[in-house]
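pasting for ref
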Amino acid sequence: MDVSSGLNRSLTLRVAIIVVMGNIIGSGVYKKVAPMAAELHAPGWILICWLLGGLITLMGALCNAEIASMLADTGGEYAYYKKIYGRFFSFLYGWSNFAAIKTAAVASIAYVFAQSFHSMIPLPSILDSWKDINIGGVFYPFESLNVKLVAILLVLSLTGVNTTGLKTGAGLSVVLMILVLTGIAIITLCGSGSEHADIKAAFSLETPDASPVTMSAIFTAMLAAFWAYEGWNSIGFLGGEIRNPNRNVPLSITIGLLIVIALYFVVNMTYLSVLPVADMEHLYRDTNAIAAVEVVRVFGGNTGVFLISLLILITTLGCTHATILSNARTYYAMATERVFFSGIGKLNKAKVPGNALWLQGVWACLLVLSGTFDQLTDMLIFAAFIYYGATTVGVFILRKKMPTVPRPYKVWGYPVVPALFILFCIVLVCNTLVERPREAAIGLTLILLGIPFYYWFKRR
């Protein structure tokens, strides 16, 4: 069955690039410099990790783009894996997106939106006496409940917007991205040009006690960078709604990601030139602090704090919206093949998978209650890189399995670039198991829960 048959191919290359960037630029550009500082203790190494994270992500994106150029369809990797590994692995990926990856991304970005809203308009405490209630010492659903409820309201509101039609959702993405790029440019220009900025200090590789930076610290810090780059592959989930997808899907991924890499490097250089690494480390210990807000406070005062908080609201609003917009299409594709809940495979009057969007929204709201921002992001990056590696292995498999199929785009540097990316994925996953065992265990558990569900759906 062609899952694209009922969908409208209305997205151009320009809009597709905006959707790629909108899925990427969210909370990470404002918040993740702090946990990176806590691992590396030197601004120069932080900038190196931003570049390394971007280049490694680009390597994976180039590999993904070759497969996307061959097999572009609604569902992204879910559709690709059916050709590469078969229906079981394809289902497990779709299930992982629902249980641990994309819905956790929606929850995480919405959480930062709510934190920024709280910094502008302090929210009254709600059930504060319940904040220590926990499940297994891991989940604290009532901690910062006032912030979490705002995040939940955002998720449900944007889900409702996306059920009204694709053009409405894509048009909102374009407007929000223009506002975001303008705001980040103003921060960079004002911050780097202020009297508080020391650009040279931002490139220092020296740690406070002259201790060496270990490879394990670099890989752990890159978990934060990879969260900031996460979402580049979401455009593949809209393959059935993009004009000339075999050309425009790989182009939009590559162009969008290159723009974001340059943007991230410049804005983080500005952060590190204004605020010392020691202060960044202190911000990491305050779970509700946002690094970009404190940087702007130094040179912009209270007015600057209000404006940066407003920009973060717009950015995280846009990224939450873009993530909700694209990822529900995977569950729609699964349901049309009868390996997911049957009602999810229906389009509403606006020709969008409304039921899939609402299911995604409800689960994302539960994830908001389940943990902290960094706990959610480390879990989803661990899970995501298992599949990024699997996609890249697929480049080798399809070169052997389908040698005559037209490839509008072939990955640059084959076979070296794909092989290096696969090796990196293995090292990152293993390092996370050692350095972040709790987050890795949660991610693996949610992924493996898909196995009994697969056989239940298949038997039914």
